[in-house]
Amino acid sequence: MLIGQKLWEGKGKSVGTGLIKSVSREHVISEYSWIAEVKGLGCAEGLDGNINVTAVAKMPFNGVGKANDRGIFTTTNGEMCTMKGYDLLQMTAKGNPSAVGLYTFMTQSEKLAWMNNLIALVTFEALDPMWMDSTITIYEWK
Length: 142
Fold this sequence. Notes:
The protein is an all-beta fold. It has one domain: Beta Barrel (Porin). About 0% of the residues lie in helices and about 70% in strands. It is built from no helices and eight strands. It has an eight-stranded antiparallel barrel. The protein starts with a strand and ends with a strand. The model has no long low-confidence stretch (mean pLDDT about 95).
């Protein structure tokens, strides 16, 4: 597996309060939303924009969870694509949580058509223990 060039980086923020869908002895399933403002780099230079995502996460009590994401990426030029992703999240007793994900994109935009063939490796670093603010970096996965 090779990580290609860095495509976007930016800051993320949790939106509203999360929704607890279920609680069991083994895990908590919750739904939450986040937004990120990203700046394009490399072949995505000039494609600055906003990412809006809703995710459903399953967090076992051992601190390693998973989430399914659905979202929209909108550029400052008005271009748009949908995105789907799968994340692995790590909550730690000391330090802030982090996550890594694989995302795919779908668009009708000619300018963003190259993203239809893109698999992106996405990294998240929380800036606080509760994921209220985070950094996001998106790389192409070759």
